[in-house]
Specification:
- This protein is elongated.
- The chain has 2 domains: 105 residues, Methane Monooxygenase Hydroxylase, Chain G, domain 1; 97 residues, Methane Monooxygenase Hydroxylase, Chain G, domain 1 (Up-down Bundle), CATH 1.20.58.
- It has 8 helices and no strands.
- The protein starts with a helix and ends with a helix.
- With 205 residues, it is mainly α.
């Protein structure tokens, strides 16, 4: 009996140790991904690429570590790491190239990919506002167009929470973000037209 208990304790001790390792590595993926997004917004391409590469390698380590533990492989810890890495990579490609990467190109499962895609809209709004501040309204309009395209894609996934947890809430969030961004862009366009009209009037005096 004592030997059996020791074997069981050893089994669960190993699981606990692995879980702690997974938590640490997952946090590192999330941290690196956040830094990649920040670098992308600063147009710091070198650091953005470096942080993304490190995040990708760390995520690969994480995936390998949980291969033999299905209960961890599908846990919220792992899905959060996939989601943050996916968001950072999507943001980078959308802002730099206007390109939407696929789940296969990112090597991440469908659920965290869709969650990442929804969160990408918030980062595109931030990008659009940055462009508006420096009077690059046309580029801000392009960012809004990408946001709208992503929303249309997300609305194709009309599934209950049992299949896609949180998706309906994400869809509502994306709709609100787009509406606010469209409003901000409309104000910026009107303001620019007014300024140009006033300048022409000044020159005509």
């Amino acid at each position: 009996m004592r030997e059996m208990l020791q074997r069981m304790r050893k089994h669960f001790d190993a699981q606990e140790e692995l879980r702690e390792k997974v938590l640490d590595v997952s946090r590192e993926v999330i941290r690196l991904s956040a830094r990649a997004i920040a670098a992308t917004h600063r147009e710091d391409q070198s650091n953005a690429d470096e942080f993304l590469a490190k995040s990708r390698d760390t995520l690969a380590t994480l995936t390998e570590a949980v291969k033999a533990e299905p209960h961890l492989a599908n846990s919220g810890i792992i899905l959060a790491a996939y989601q943050e890495y996916g968001e950072a990579t999507l943001v980078r490609a959308l802002i730099r190239d206007g390109k939407l990467l696929t789940p296969e190109e990112l090597s991440i499962p469908y659920k965290p990919y869709l969650a990442a895609l929804a969160d990408t809209v918030g980062e595109l709004r931030r990008h659009a506002l940055d462009l508006i501040r420096v009077d690059e309204v046309e580029r801000a309009e392009q960012a809004l167009k990408l946001m709208e395209e992503i929303f249309e894609l997300l609305m194709e996934f009309d599934y209950p929470d049992a299949i896609l947890p949180g998706m309906k809430r994400k869809q509502d969030m994306v709709r609100r973000v787009i509406e606010h961004t469209r409003g901000d862009l409309t104000i910026a366009i009107r303001q620019r037209k007014l300024e140009r009209t006033l300048k022409r009037a000044e020159r005509g005096k």
